Amino acid sequence: MATKPKSHGIDAAFTRSVLKGSQIEPSYSGALSFMRRKYTKDLVGADIAITGVPFDLSVSNRPGTRFGPEAIRKASAQHAWGPVWPWRFDPFDTLAAIDYGDCVFDWGAPQDAPLAIERHISEVISTGTASLVLGGDHFITYPVLKAYAAKFGPIGLVQFDAHRDVEPDEGGRMDHGTMFNLAVREGIIDPQRTVQVGIRTCFDGEETYGMTIMYADAVHAAPAEEIAATILSTVGDGPTYLTFDIDCLDPSTAPGTGTPVPGGLTSYEALAIIRALKGLDPVGMDVVEVSPPFDHAEMTSNAAAMIAAELLCLKAWARGARAAS
Ligand code: MN
Ligand code: MN
Questions:
Q1: What is the pLDDT, as a whole number, of residue 6?
Q2: Which of 31, 106, 109, 152 could cross-link to 13 by cystine, CB 3.0-4.6 Å?
Q3: How far apart are CA 189 and CA 212, in angstroms?
Q4: Ligand number with the minimum distance to the CA of 165
Q5: Ligand minimally distant from the alpha carbon of residue 261
Q6: For residue range 197-241, what is the model confidence (pLDDT) as tens digits?
Q7: How far, in Å, from the CA of 285 to the mean position of ligand 1?
Q8: 304 — pLDDT class (breaks 50, 70, 90)
Q9: Are 280 and 57 in contact (CB under 8 A)?
Q10: For residue 159, what are the CA distances in angstroms to 10, 58, 163, 194, 231?
Q11: For residue 157, what is the enclosing H or E element?
């Protein structure tokens, strides 16, 4: 007699009554949310809120990341099946996670967007819920970090990226290539507790600010465990935010992004580093710069969804999740 896999169902995004656990739904069917989590604005009991920030007006080159959150949600349906390899547990057995929907702003008043994003995140984290933001271009991390810094003080930053995003800027602009310069000068992030991974660009006027920079060649040459050890020792025990700019990945892995740079990480390399970061419990996280109009076969949104899923595994691990023996 044929046996059915457990928990077949449909539309968990609006039919589920509990925040934890997973059910199997066909990836082509059912209401989409990030990994079929419940769509709700109710933060009560939520450990983490996944939320989209579809803003792409700060890019230097190709736009399109406003379509990132919906593409990552769609791609995530392919991974919302329960246990995640090689963690071998379902992060949602440990983390009560919701899809908080998207941040809204007036397209006719883009100058108001940063404050709208900061308030959106403040709203989430004021309750003790963490956020996992789906971008949007990388500038959005700046108002997100402002909300976190208001709560935690200057925070440590783990940045996966091809670019350092610290080009000179006097402020008052929206630019996805300069905001970590502003974040340092404004005391939002602690440069001594900041590590940038996968960097393979350089710009005039960039200063190190005391950040730890792991260039792509060094990342390719070292085992994931070694890179993770440097990350962990740099950020230490204080509050730490993790931001993943998808252009850290090589364009052969993630072509759908605004400023692609050859010579980057494979999805395997990036995931191996994330898996080796066990013990890190970021106060907030994001995956940004996914630009679906430049994607092919959902390669980029698929990679972003998997990275986001494994970042949740990392957080679940820090909260005690372990493989069933
Ligand atoms: Mn970036
Ligand atoms: Mn970048």
A1: 58
A2: 31
A3: 13
A4: 1
A5: 2
A6: 999 999 999 999 999 999 999 999 999 999 999 999 999 999 999
A7: 14
A8: very high
A9: no
A10: 36, 18, 9, 8, 10
A11: strand 155-160
Specify which residues 129 forms β-bridges with.
none
What is the mean pLDDT of the segment spanning 84-113? 97
The Cα 172–Cα 111 span in angstroms is 10
The rounded distance, in Å, linking the Cα atoms of 224 and 166 is 25
Q: State how far the alpha carbon of 99 is from the alpha carbons of 18, 34, 160, 301, in Å.
A: 13, 6, 24, 17
Determine the Cα angle at 182 with ends 178 and 186, to 5°.
Answer: 170
Q: What is the DSSP string of 171-224?
A: SSS--TTTHHHHHHHTTSEEEEEEEEEEE----TT---TT-EEEEHHHHHHS-H
The gap from C-alpha 146 to its chain's centroid, in whole angstroms, comes to 16
Q: Spell out a b/e string for 163-188, using b for 16 or more CB atoms within 10 Å of the CB, else e.
A: bbbbbebeeeebbbbbbbbbbbeeeb
Give me the domains of the chain, ranges plus CATH numbers: 12-318 (3.40.800.10)
Strand partners, 159: 196, 243
How many Å lie between the centroid of ligand 1 and the Cα of residue 18?
36
Q: Distance, CA 82 to ligand 1 centroid (Å)?
A: 31
Amino acid at position 267, single letter: S
Dist CA 306 CA 79 (whole Å): 7
